[in-house]
Amino acid sequence: MQQKTFITSPIYYVNDIPHIGHAYTTILCDMLKRFRILQGEDVLFLTGTDEHGQKIEQSAQKHNQTPQAYADSVSVKFKELWNEFQLDYDIFVRTTDSKHCQSVQKAFEIMCEKGDIYKGSYEGNYCISCESFFTQSQLGENLSCPDCGKPTQIVQEESYFFALSKYQDKLLEFYKQNPNMIAPAFRQNEVVKFISEGLNDLSITRTSFEWGIPLPENPKRNDSKKHIMYVWLDALLSYISPLGYMQDSAKMAYWENALHFVGKDILRFHAVYWIAFLMSLDLPLPKHIYAHGWWTKDGAKMSKSIGNVINPQEVAQAYGIESLRYFLMREMPFGQDGDFSQKALIERINAELGNDVGNLLNRLLGMSEKYFSLKVDSKDVKKFFATELNELENIIDRTQEKMQTMQPQRYIEELWAAFSLGNGVITKYEPWNLIKNAQQDKAMALLGLIANILAKASLLLYPIMPQSAEKIAYALSFTISPDSFATLIKQHALLDSLILQKIPPLFPRIDSPLMPESTQEHIESKPLDSKTQGNQTKSANIANLIDIKDFSKIDIRAGKVIECCAVEKSQKLLKLMVDINEPKPRQIISGIAQYYKPDELLNKQVCIIANLKPAKLMGLLSEGMILASKDENGLSLLCLDTPRENGSKIS
Ligand code: MSP
């Protein structure tokens, strides 16, 4: 029987649009789902939006909307973003779904029948931003919230309470029996300490505002109408209501093996309240809670008032969702805080994706085409490279272990040892010399070894970068699936003999930031931008002499601009399509928008460097560079005295 697994992200408050922290957790879930599916499991992945509570009611008022209309408008933004990111969620729960509301009401009654709910009155401090109650001893300076630092409000109201204190010993016993329940381990220690210090019963209904699930009508209670559910009771139950809890129970079997991802700030709600609620409801307890750290921006906390909040959509549009996924998983040691900077992102794309992975595949394709017409055969790999194969299998085992213990960053580090192995064997065995010395068999085995390294590594790369992994698999003529995972990873089998498929470079080099920094739009193209270059030209400081061989490396062509338009959100860039007599016109992104209007360039013949490595600017591929001269009087394009045929070489 296939193992059923349930993976959840937190459900996000609709008082804010998605930011990088939300994207991080949701991508983590998607990553784990893909990994578990490859392992043959049947996985459900839940995400959604948390739409009730005082905070949402207040935000809706500020926007002059009803809470429901406001929640509808923001919830859809989360859903659209996860769709745009191709995150493979199965359930998008909204706490305003009627099915969810009914499950919450039924759960409340079950807790009542169990004797875990009683009526009392609450007097204390409440943080609306965290939707959380605090005792006097927990409060920060000036009665501020110990979690977010914002001022708390004194709340005095009649309330139903959940008898959390009753579960103190059971909770401690549970964590004793399950020492690896929470990852990273130090977080479990913090939770155990919190419980050991004593648990207060929890106020689980509110009367001072209206936006929440009402208590179920019950003749034993005459005041049900006055109370609404505390937003965390409501929200936590959203993990089981879409599985059909107390309704059709259709998918409750998945609940037997539940895994939660949460940020460190909401661990207590999950590791203490949620577990106690589940104990009260006599439901199975989750298998793991994975608590991640927070993203900062260039070392600072992200905040709307500073204006440094990273919008994941902008990053993905500039650098691609695959590179964003890679960066998020690689940069942040799971459980600790991590910093987002474009510099670090670009460095990782160029070095780790471009050089280590992209080049390895290119080298394989190039050599295999040159020496063996793209044929690859694994039959002699063991004979010539048993030690390397053995090392590869060890790397693969070590890599998988890191996912079992939820250390995605270490997983990637281990996986990269496989790409290093691939690059290393080329340097060590020099296939071109094997061919020269008539060792064709060994050269074929070496390329077979590299193809197998890439195939196995791509299977393990799939959870992190699904589309790139699929492209590598396509080049190696196989598909990523639980079956190929079983043969190539679990059974350590090798690829059958195959014909490689050529594919375009996977990770084009990025030479400068593709997103405006918060204060200043970046300047995209060094040759046109550089003030220093203008000055150097003026003083005719021509120091770096080159010989004609160096110059002949630059392929300059005449070409006609057949289309030209502005680049959205950029004041500096134009997008040009230039005909240089190739089957398709070249797309060139050029920093000349301040000097030329698109119409002025149409049908103009310009000179371009045609063999410059492609680069991405503001998310758009640029396949060449237009030549121009710039000084303090402006910029002038290099044009020909009399028109030439498009594609004519300039020397
Ligand atoms: N609605 C509750 C969760 C209920 S789950 C039953 C909530 N929502 S939230 O929208 O405020 O936060 C959702 C998640 O985003 C939390 O896990 C939180 O840790 C995470 N993050 C918020 N800012 C973050 C960063 N700067 N970095 C990483 N994650 C961060 O809490």
Protein described:
The chain is of the alpha/beta class. The chain has three domains: 4-292, 3-Layer(aba) Sandwich (Rossmann fold), CATH 3.40.50.620; 322-499, Isoleucyl-tRNA Synthetase, Domain 1, CATH 1.10.730.10; 548-650, OB fold (Dihydrolipoamide Acetyltransferase, E2P). Strands 1, 2, 3, 4, 8, 12 and 13 form a seven-stranded parallel sheet that branches. Strands 19, 20, 21, 22, 25 and 28 form a six-stranded antiparallel sheet that branches. The protein starts with a strand and ends with a strand. Bound molecules: 5'-O-[(L-methionyl)-sulphamoyl]adenosine. 5'-O-[(L-methionyl)-sulphamoyl]adenosine binds next to strand 2, helix 1, helix 7 and strand 12. Residues 10-13, 21-22, 24-25, 50, 235-236, 262-263, 265-266, 294-295, 302 line the site of 5'-O-[(L-methionyl)-sulphamoyl]adenosine.
Q: Any guess at the CATH architecture of the largest domain?
A: 3-Layer(aba) Sandwich
Based on helices, strands and strand pairing, what is the structural class? alpha/beta
Count of discrete domains: 3
Bound molecules: 5'-O-[(L-methionyl)-sulphamoyl]adenosine
Helix content: 40-55%
Helix segment tally: 21
Q: What is the number of E strands? A: 28
Shape: globular
Question: Sheet bearing the most strands, described?
Answer: 7 strands, parallel
Q: Regarding CATH, which class of the largest domain?
A: Alpha Beta
CATH level-3 fold name of the largest domain: Rossmann fold
**Superfamily (CATH H level) name of the largest domain:** HUPs
What integer value in Å does the Rg equal?
Answer: 30 Å
User: How large is the share of residues in beta strands?
Assistant: 15-25%
Low-confidence runs of at least 5 consecutive residues: 519-543
Question: Mean pLDDT, nearest integer?
Answer: 92
Task: Report how far apart the termini are.
Answer: 69 Å
